[in-house]
């Protein structure tokens, strides 16, 4: 029998955005307290009995979303060229985090990144 661990960590940041061309109130400038979370999986634990330290994952996420904090997303690359939707934000974070994990040679797999712009709504992005 094989076993796998999956752990998740999350961070928050505050930012505004608008969705030009959207047929509703979100076309106007408005803000959110965004929640970004990521899950990694693997089979081997380190000497401390951890797959990856939660604090390390949070630190990586914070490095990625920190430049977005208290900004208008529409003015920050790549969202100055693509709509700053939850979907695009999740894909952006996923790819940046995957690049970081690959560069560090981690023996873990990035499973998914989730982004919520409110307690009631959110999106999960994964690459298969």
Q: What do you see in this structure?
A:
The chain has helices at 54-65, 86-103, and strands spanning 5-17, 30-42, 109-118, 121-125. The protein is α+β, with helices and mostly antiparallel strands and 128 residues long. The protein has a single domain, classed as Tetrahydropterin Synthase, Chain A. Strands 1-2-3-4 form a four-stranded antiparallel β-sheet, covered by helices on one side. β3 (109-118) and β4 form a beta hairpin. α1 crosses α2 (86-103). The protein is elongated and about 50 Å long. The mean pLDDT is 96.
Q: Mind summarizing the main beta sheet?
A: 4 strands, antiparallel
By CATH, the superfamily comes out as 6-pyruvoyl tetrahydropterin synthase/QueD
Number of helices: 2
CATH level-1 class: Alpha Beta
Q: Strand sequence of the main sheet, in spatial order?
A: 1-2-3-4
Question: How many domains in all?
Answer: 1
Residues in β-strands, percent: 25-35%
The helical percent reads: 10-25%
Structural class from helices and strands? alpha+beta
Q: Which whole number gives the mean pLDDT?
A: 96
CA-CA gap between termini: 23 Å
Structural Rg: 16 Å
So what's the overall shape?
A: elongated
CATH topology: Tetrahydropterin Synthase, Chain A
* DSSP, total strands: 4
User: What order do the SSEs take from the amino end to the carboxyl end, as H and E?
Assistant: EEHHEE
């Amino acid at each position: 029998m094989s076993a796998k661990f999956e752990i998740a960590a999350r961070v928050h940041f505050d930012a505004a955005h608008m969705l030009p061309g959207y047929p509703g109130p979100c076309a106007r400038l408005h803000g959110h307290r965004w929640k970004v979370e990521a899950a990694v999986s693997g089979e081997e634990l380190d000497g401390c009995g951890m797959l990856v330290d939660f604090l390390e994952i949070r630190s990586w996420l914070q490095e990625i979303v920190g430049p977005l904090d208290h900004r208008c997303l529409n003015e920050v690359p790549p969202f100055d060229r693509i709509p700053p939707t939850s979907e695009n934000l999740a894909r952006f974070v996923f790819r940046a985090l995957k690049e970081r994990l690959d560069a560090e040679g981690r023996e873990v797999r990035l499973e998914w990144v989730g982004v919520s712009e409110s307690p009631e709504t959110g999106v999960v992005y994964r690459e298969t």
